[in-house]
Write a structure and sequence with these properties.
- The chain is mainly α.
- It has helices spanning 5-24, 36-51, 74-78, 80-86, 90-116, 119-130, 133-139, 145-162, 168-179, 186-200, 202-206, 210-233, 239-244, 250-256, 259-269, 272-277, 280-293, 298-304, 324-336, 341-353, 355-359, 376-392, 397-430, 438-448, 466-474, 478-484, 498-502, and strands at 63-64, 71-72, 454-457, 491-493, 508-512, 524-530, 536-542.
- The chain starts with a helix and ends with a strand.
């Protein structure tokens, strides 16, 4: 079937509209509250807007220190116009990511069209990305990986276009360089992706006039140089990598593999083979490989997800279960079909390098660190669906139409189930993962503020990094905070101890979990904050 350009534009516009609705609907309330990273992005962007400096007083930072994880600062700058217009609100903090999530759908269409020269495959891939649980999930909260994904897709798109129109190569280099400022993972993924593009399309690049290649190289180097120099010269730039890496605690890794005991037995038995395979380097390699493979696990992708509460609603994987057979069929069709060899290689190698950064970390599999899988899974699924449909045209109508009906019923059920799990059930079951309660706590504390000379706020679970939520919700003047540090005004953010309770009086206010107070103590509870599932989590208590 052939469609006119007008019909293609109409269908694509409808797909983008669906993507927009799914990413913008109740954006400020689903998920039910900001997590600590979102609050940090919001307040640091607000601080830069008001003073030109982040919360630590760093002038126009390339990297936001945040919770000593030193995140590339691009998202804070993208948030500036939204906070300037909408104020420091949950919607303003999340809106840039939602918009980038919508853009990825359009970019995916253009990229697939460029790769395969087929509008049907491009439209279906874009539609599958528009309704993708993985994409929707990470578009609806301030996760900088979505920004990195969009620039990576633009990098590939402009590179492929640049093989025919060389001036696009500079845009490709610019997109890749900008991606480095978005998310820690991109510091490894973008170089790997660049190497793949250069190897696969090296011959085509050699035919391009040198002035375009030099121009692209200079653009890329010029834009990437500041973040590259910061990464190389500032030891803090690797803080997050060290804390997330499973190699950060190598003794712990070896202990979990019973390495010391096995090594001792090998030594006693003079077991040379044991020495070889129980070598700590072999243990590390096996662990990295296991981490890598875990990202292709069907249970992770289609059924349970990565088990991090902020990464998927309950009872859902990151892809629809109905997609599984079509994804496998699409992979078979890609490998066996008459497609451009270089496009085949690009898609397969793209998928294979995605888990590399995440495989070096301890909390695997991790959907946030492997967001660059999008839209490769959708492309393969779309290829499988189109191939299955083409094959079904050979069937008799009395077989074909009931099969179509059954298939559409399953698709609709899978989609409606997901919508219910995300927009209805998710907040109830996952409010703790989203550190729910600060929007209820802080207005109450503000009303009680004049009565108390000291306010002690726990910074331990479930009130981790509580200081940033108070800064964010109070809209505390950044200029004042930069002078005072974490414990500002009457607020003291620390683990609540029995000594704190014993030394308190009626002019002290505590915000903490019930477990932080002595069991035999009689304390005046001013407010109880409940999670959305009804469990009691946080207390506002007057000192004894």
């Amino acid at each position: 079937m052939k469609l006119t350009n007008k019909k293609i534009v109409f269908i694509l516009s409808f797909i983008v509209l669906i993507a927009a609705i799914l990413r913008l609907w109740h954006l400020n309330s689903v998920p039910p509250s900001l997590d600590w990273d979102e609050a940090s992005w919001g307040y640091n962007s607000y601080s830069i807007l008001m003073t030109g400096r982040d919360e630590y007083g760093k002038l126009m930072p390339l990297v936001v220190r945040s919770f000593n994880d030193y995140k590339p600062a691009l998202y804070a700058y993208l948030d500036l116009p939204f906070i300037a217009v909408l104020g420091l609100t949950d919607l303003a903090v999340r809106l840039p990511n939602a918009i980038f999530g919508i853009f990825t759908v359009l970019t995916a269409y253009l990229l697939v069209k460029e790769m395969f020269k087929r509008w049907d495959l491009a439209l279906l891939s874009a539609f599958l990305l528009a309704i993708s649980p993985w994409s929707i999930q990470f578009s609806r909260f301030a996760h900088e990986g979505m920004v990195g994904l969009e620039f990576n897709l633009l990098m590939i798109l402009f590179f492929l276009k640049g093989l025919k129109k060389p001036w696009y190569l500079s845009l490709s280099a610019a997109a890749g360089a900008i991606s480095l400022y978005s998310y820690q993972n991109e510091k490894l993924f973008v170089p790997l992706l660049s190497i793949i593009l250069l190897i696969i399309f090296g011959k085509e690049l050699l035919k391009i006039p040198r002035k375009y290649l030099i121009s692209a190289f200079l653009v890329g180097v010029f834009l990437a140089l500041p973040i590259a120099l910061y990464t190389v010269t500032n030891p803090n730039s690797f803080t997050r990598a060290r804390s997330a890496s499973f190699l950060n605690n190598p003794i712990g890794v070896l202990n979990t593999k019973n390495y010391p005991e096995r090594n001792l037995v090998n030594k006693q038995n003079k077991d040379i083979i044991g020495y070889i395979f129980d070598n700590r380097r072999i243990v590390y390699v096996k662990d990295i490989f296991g981490n890598y493979i875990s990202h292709f696990d069907i249970n992770y992708l289609f059924i349970k997800g990565d088990m991090i509460g902020r990464h998927q609603p309950p009872g859902m994987g990151h892809l629809y279960l109905i997609e599984l057979p079509f994804l496998l069929l699409g992979l078979f069709v890609l490998l066996s079909g008459r497609f451009d060899r270089k496009i085949k290689a690009l898609l397969i190698l793209w998928m294979l390098i995605v888990p590399v950064p995440a495989s070096l970390t301890w909390d695997v599999p991790n959907a946030g660190r492997t967001m660059n899988f999008l839209p490769t899974f959708q492309i393969l699924t779309a290829l499988g669906v189109i191939s299955a449909y083409s094959y079904s045209l050979k069937w008799k109508k009395y077989i074909r139409y009931p099969v179509y009906g059954a298939f559409m019923t399953l698709v609709l059920f899978n989609f409606v189930y997901y919508l219910n799990q995300y927009f209805v059930q998710y907040s109830y079951f996952s409010s703790q993962a989203w550190q729910y309660g600060y929007n209820q706590i802080i207005p109450e504390v503000k009303s009680l503020y004049p009565k108390y000379s000291k306010i002690i706020v726990s910074n331990e679970s479930p009130l981790d990094q509580s200081y940033i939520f108070f800064l964010y919700n109070l809209k505390y003047p950044p200029k004042d905070y930069q002078k005072r540090g974490h414990n500002f005004d009457k607020y003291d953010f620390k683990p609540v101890t029995q000594k704190d309770w014993e030394n308190s009086d009626s002019t002290t206010l505590f915000i903490s979990s019930q477990n932080d107070f002595p069991n035999d103590a009689k304390y005046k509870i001013l407010k109880k904050i409940y999670l959305l599932n009804g469990t009691n989590e946080i207390l506002i208590v007057e000192g004894k």
